[in-house]
Write a structure and sequence with these properties.
Layout: H1 32-54, H2 59-80, H3 91-109, H4 132-141, H5 151-167
This protein binds heme C.
The site of heme C has 25 residues, from helix 3, helix 4 and helix 5.
């Protein structure tokens, strides 16, 4: 076999003695580092597989734990959240609310609440409800057609206060800005 002399590792005797188109077969020992790596992976499998199967750890369990943690937090927040405006009729709070109203809300709802970019807040029509929880939700989280969320900037106290102020604005019986029928029949 030509070229065999040039090899660094000498070929072993062929076992089958057959000719394989002149291609030599080397049967060198597997290197030590390979056996060591192999041994480590086997040892790892022996430890890891039972641990994975029986320790109770899994992504389902992790997920369930996370959901549990969040739902506890949500329940705590909900339990804390007033369902009626705690500042209704409170003069000091209403005065504070009027400042928030004047700095933020007037730009879109006008100082008298009759509406500009945003709808009228003094007419009988409420797209998202005028119970305290709905109003709070509207101001805190915003609404899709252009009402921004104010929770981060105001916090719940100031939201309740501005709503307490909003309530004191003189009401109108007519459908206002944004209400169905507004501007069609006067
Ligand atoms: C950038 C303009 C803008 C500002 C500022 C703004 N709003 Fe609005 N608001 C809107 C728009 C637009 C809507 C209608 C949203 C919709 O229909 O989805 C709306 C809707 C509302 C509604 C719901 C009305 C209904 O019919 O259910 C309330 C309540 C409200 N705003 C209160 C406030 C208060 C209180 C403030 C001040 C903290 C405020 N808004 C600031 C634009 C604004």
């Amino acid at each position: 076999m030509s070229g065999a002399e040039a090899r660094e590792i000498p070929e072993r005797e062929r076992v089958d003695g057959a000719d394989h188109d002149g291609i030599g077969e080397e049967d060198n020992p597997v290197p030590r580092w390979w056996w060591i790596t192999f041994g480590i992976t086997v040892a790892w499998a022996v430890l890891y597989v039972p641990w994975y199967l029986f320790s109770g750890w899994s992504q389902e369990v992790q997920y369930a734990e996370e959901v549990e943690r969040v739902s506890v937090a949500v329940a705590a927040v909900k339990a804390d959240m007033p369902t009626t405006n705690p500042y209704r009729g409170d003069a000091a709070a209403i005065a504070e609310g009027s400042e928030t109203w004047a700095t933020i809300c007037v730009a879109c709802h006008k100082p008298d609440g009759s509406g500009l970019v945003g709808p009228s807040l003094v007419d009988p029509y409420w797209r998202y409800g005028d119970d305290d929880v709905s109003l709070f939700e509207t101001v805190a989280k915003g609404r899709p057609e252009g009402m921004p969320p104010w929770e981060a900037q105001l916090g719940s106290e100031k939201i309740w206060k501005v709503l307490a102020y909003m309530e004191t604005l003189p009401k109108s019986d007519e459908p206002g800005m944004g209400a169905p029928g507004f501007g069609t029949d006067g």
